[in-house]
């Protein structure tokens, strides 16, 4: 088997792609409580293109996925200065 390049992929998608390719993805601490499911793959060992036996473990390191900004938008921080709206209205009127 040739190890695919998992870097830049969502961890769960990388795990699924690895399974389809015949390798198993694991985190740097295979006995840890956190499975490789969340975040973005930033590094892997063995590196992409390495020839390995089928179902060999490939260790991947992940980081949290960037916030896509689709969450709650209010309240805004910092709050606008008090009396800003009132001052703008008195200038127009």
From TrEMBL:
Region (Disordered): 64-93
Domain of life: Bacteria
Span of domain PASTA: 2-62
Basic and acidic residues composition bias: residue spans: 64-77
Record-given protein name: PASTA domain-containing protein
Organism of provenance: Sphaerisporangium aureirubrum
């Amino acid at each position: 088997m040739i190890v695919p390049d998992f870097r830049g992929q969502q961890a769960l998608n990388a795990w699924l792609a690895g399974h389809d390719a015949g390798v198993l993805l694991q985190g740097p601490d295979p006995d840890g409580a956190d499975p490789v499911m969340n975040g973005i793959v930033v590094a892997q060992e063995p590196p992409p293109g390495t020839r390995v036996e089928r179902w060999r473990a490939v260790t991947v390191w992940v980081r949290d996925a960037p916030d896509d900004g689709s969450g709650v938008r209010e309240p805004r921080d910092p709050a606008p200065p008090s009396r800003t709206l009132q001052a703008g209205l008195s200038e127009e009127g």
